[in-house]
Specification:
This protein is α/β, with parallel strands linked by helices. Helix content is about 50%, strand content about 10%. A five-stranded parallel sheet has the order 2-3-1-4-5, with helices on both faces. α3 packs across α5.
């Protein structure tokens, strides 16, 4: 897949991953790396989304009916992800770019696989054809107590956020399981520290991948 690098930032809702993904992009760009898709340099790739089809699926998943069946939800995420892999991730990596993802496959494994009890292996299996083996070089999970994350919430809650604390506790357990299951790829960072300290810890976690600048 060329010389590109794929980094995903994960965690429960309200953990600060979107802020930290943007800060990581800024940090990497300042070091001379070609960050983000070529058509939107310096930017985070959000998931679900990142393509026209993916953004349409995102609207359905986050603002559609509250009663989507768990497998419907899982398959919609998988479809949006397959489009992202084909249209954005593979071309970017072939071009040697560093792509920072705000969520990726591990969110489906934690939310639908673990929290919705569909099974981590089962959700991974339905995603596998669309992924085509494209797994992050490193995944950083921000660990934040679900009550702390809930207190950070601003604006109108989306469909999943409205399910509240019980779901987020199960999701947090799911991410902890993934960290145990994939220790070579998944790094955990204390997300309750000040923003700058969290950013430094994430930069340190991804540093081994970045031995030589890519411009």
């Amino acid at each position: 897949m060329g010389d590109g690098i794929l980094i995903s930032i994960e965690g429960i809702d309200g953990c600060g991953k979107s802020t930290q993904a943007a800060l990581l992009c800024r940090h990497l760009a300042a070091r001379g790396f070609a960050v983000g898709p070529a058509e939107a340099p310096g930017t985070v790739v959000r998931e679900p989304g990142g393509t026209p089809a993916g953004e349409a699926v995102r609207r359905l998943l986050l603002h559609g009916p509250d009663d989507l069946a768990p497998w419907t939800e899982a398959l919609l995420y998988a479809a949006a992800r397959a489009e992202l892999v084909e249209r954005v991730l593979r071309p970017g990596l072939r071009a040697g770019r560093v792509l920072v993802l705000d969520r990726y496959i591990d969110s489906s494994l934690a939310y639908q696989g673990h929290a919705r009890a569909l099974g981590v292996d089962e959700v991974l299996a339905v995603n596998a054809p669309g992924l085509g083996g494209l797994i992050p070089d490193v995944t950083v999970v921000l660990c934040v107590d679900p009550e702390v994350a809930l207190a950070r919430a601003v604006g109108e809650a989306d469909r999943i956020e409205r399910e509240g604390l019980a779901l987020q506790r199960r999701v947090a357990d799911g991410f902890a399981e993934l960290a145990r299951r994939f220790p070579g790829r998944v790094r955990t960072v204390d997300g309750e520290r000040p923003v700058a300290e969290v950013a430094e810890a994430i930069a340190a976690a991804v540093a081994p991948l970045l031995e030589a600048p890519r411009v």
